[in-house]
Amino acid sequence: MRYVSTRGTASVLGFEDVLLAGLARDGGLYVPEEWPRLSAGDFKALAPLSYPALAARIMAPFTAGCLDEDALATLCADAYADFGHPAVAPLKQLDDGLWMMELFHGPTLAFKDYALQIVGRLFDHVLGKRGRRMTVLGATSGDTGSAAIEALRGRDAVDVFILHPEGRVSEVQRRQMTTVDAPNIHNIAVEGTFDDCQDLVKALFNDHAFRDEVGLGAVNSINWARVLGQIVYYVRAALALGAPDRDVAFAVPTGNFGNIFAGYGAREMGLPIPRLICASNRNDILARFLEGGSLEARAVEPSLSPSMDIQISSNFERLLFDAYDRDGQALDADMTAFRRDGRLSVERSRWHRIRELFAGFRLDDAGTRAEIARLYAETGELVDPHSAIGIAAARAGTEGLACPVVCLATAHPAKFPDAVEKATGRRPALPDRLADLYDRPERVERLANDADALRARIRDMVAK
Ligand SMILES: *Cc1c(COP(=O)(O)O)cnc(C)c1O
Q1: Best residue among 285, 307, 316, 389 to mutate for probing ligand 1, ranked by most atoms within 8 Å of CB
Q2: What share of the chain is helix, strand, coil (3-state, %, to 5)?
Q3: What pLDDT, in 10s, does the model give residues 175-189?
């Protein structure tokens, strides 16, 4: 499998190099040169497999040339062994035609574990093979950071620097990052928003000399392997509900567009997915785009669902690349203008193509609380604010659809206990393995929103 950049000029790379590169040298994101297609018969043969076995089969065509299928199966078995539910990603029926897939049974209780547990092992495998070290640099709006730290703690060949926006992640999220006591883990609280953190990461990746000097690698969903690890559960849910003989739609609480883009990937591989509902909080740039065809960045506003407090959804570029008929140069010009002006009007025909599959949805904090309360009253289920937005989107977005809709529950309710308690009067408890989280000591450094300061900090630590 070969990968091309969405900006059209970076080298075409194989899986291993894409895994280590993160962002492409031309500032673009890597996507498969061609999606592997499975037949209906192929999909049916996957239906009885366990989650880890399915993961290995789905990932195999994408990782071909990096590791053989037996090695991949071993890594997948190991990656999902410690998840807190035997089904790994269980499905629950909430209402007629409405299902929820729980993606919060990994070590850090958010869906990011599903990809990062395997990505951490892939890093190990490839770095070991090449005798190399890497410096992972990532920005987090809360959940990526802890999932990456958990996946990479104590690994010899990797130093990890995770930036989070100071005061804008929940206490559970912060503690899950800052209480990990491993010498290769460095937490940095940036005075700014998540978009500021993401811009710092991009700035350092675009400094090619620095990038080579410290061997920068990415764990954000700009890294293709993240998206890859997420395709698996879309396949899982669709097969469980009758695909490939029956359509299955998805509603996805969305921030950086990485999760929902994996749903697009599952569809490109041949699953009958007629609709992907992109659910936003008040930071609704994608909902506004789907309504009007123009991307317009506004200031990020904090909400009850901080992992979706994003205005510049980096993975959206992967979708635009296809809507632009893979014309990387045209996309490069438009994305550069968007970064400069904060505004981009996409040609009507391109916008229409996106709208054929994607529907937008937005919900403010009051609506989010109301959905948490409604679901609890009707079913007894406690859900976190992100998942609640997905559920509300699924309820609203089923018009004209005669198929099941699966909303992805992206975080455990105990990650956001205050919001859940306020809406329901019940405080969700952390699973046993995290019960002492509030007693563990924290380790974190503060840093100004300044690329030079960050560069210096990383140089200093990596030299030690
Ligand atoms: C990261 C995250 C999201 C957003 O996912 P994207 O892939 O960035 O769109 C939604 N909900 C939770 C709980 C998250 O951690």
Answers
A1: 307
A2: 50, 15, 35
A3: 999 999 999 999 999
